[in-house]
Write a structure and sequence with these properties.
CATH topology of one domain: D-Maltodextrin-Binding Protein, domain 2
Largest sheet: 5 strands, mixed
Distance between the termini: 51 Å
CATH architecture of one domain: 3-Layer(aba) Sandwich
Helix content: 40-55%
Number of helices: 9
Strand content: 15-25%
Order of helices and strands: HHHEEHEHEEEEHEEEEHEHEEEH
Shape: elongated
Structural class: alpha/beta
């Protein structure tokens, strides 16, 4: 296999993931016509169409999905082989991260510049999804998850924890009153966030006293940012992580309720899908973000 063959295979994977010849061309610094021709040469050599092309979208065919699933681990292994012998320690290739959108925008991305600066030749892709992703199908190298991890064939590492908070807007509290005990919350409208991120029961502690309530949700959303927007809009009370709502509380858009009570912290895991835990770039990122969370913890 020549270097040109490897380049063509990398281009195919990028077109398939980006859904665009032009986007892959911009990323690689090549003309779109070159990218299209190199992918067409792969298809001609295999005797099968790998990509379905239309004026509106480009996507893998059934054969293309199978080829993509088998080729990406091979190319990732080649990246690791090159990275392992590079004296500078600088990483190259593609690193695919999957995480909830609020976790990405409020926790990871503000800290990620230091990692990107260390590895300027490493292309980092961040897939934002508050629901559980199929990380194997999406070829995610590392997933960041808040809350308890489900049983899985992959490998998880605990990298931190996030405190929970109960918040509502000043407008909502003016209309409906401010709860002063956990039980008072049961009389209020509740906004539910992403399923699986937070337990359905809310457990509070104060001076050794424990109180657990099971609030009934009146509005639900699969996005943390959506739950916060609903709370800011005065639709009710929501429970989220303190990292997710700190800025809104500081601005006065939201009010933290029951400050004398604490809620159990939520674990933050880095999850390696099966076969991805050995990737150098994946391990380097997890080491970095675990240290960053520890150093920046309030």
């Amino acid at each position: 296999m020549t270097l040109k063959d490897i380049q063509a295979l990398r281009l195919f994977t990028r077109v398939a993931r980006l859904g665009s010849f032009s986007a892959a061309a911009r990323e690689s610094g090549l003309a779109q016509s070159q990218v299209s021709r190199m992918v067409a040469d792969i298809e001609a050599g295999l005797g099968v169409r790998l990509l379905s092309r239309s004026t509106r979208a480009v996507g893998p065919t059934e054969a293309g999905n199978e080829f993509l699933a088998r080729m990406e681990p091979i190319l990732a292994a080649m990246d690791d082989a090159e990275n392992s012998v590079r004296d500078t320690g600088e990483l190259r290739g593609v690193l695919r991260l999957g995480m909830p959108s609020t976790m990405a925008t409020k926790v990871v991305m503000p800290r990620l510049w230091r990692f990107a600066e260390l590895h300027p030749q490493l292309h980092i892709e961040i897939l934002l999804e508050d629901s559980r992703q199929d990380m194997v199908r999406e070829a995610v190298d590392v997933g960041i998850r808040v809350g308890n991890m489900p049983d899985s064939s992959g490998t998880a590492r605990l990298i931190g924890s996030m405190h929970r908070a109960v918040v509502a807007s000043p407008t909502y509290l003016q209309r409906n009153g401010t709860p002063t005990t956990p039980e008072d919350i049961l009389a209020h409208r509740i906004i539910g966030g992403p399923a699986g991120a937070h337990p359905s029961s809310w457990r509070f502690e104060r001076d050794g006293q424990v109180q657990t309530i099971d609030p009934k949700t009146h509005i639900t959303t699969n996005d943390t940012a959506g739950a916060l927007a609903a709370a800011i809009g005065g639709l009710g009370i929501t429970s989220t992580t303190s990292w997710a709502c700190d800025a809104e509380v500081l601005r006065g858009d939201l009010v933290a309720l029951l400050p004398e009570w604490s809620m159990a912290a939520l674990p933050v895991h880095a999850y390696f899908p099966l076969g991805r835990a050995t990737r150098l770039a994946a391990r380097a990122f997890v080491e970095f973000i675990a240290e960053a969370l520890e150093c920046d913890r309030p």
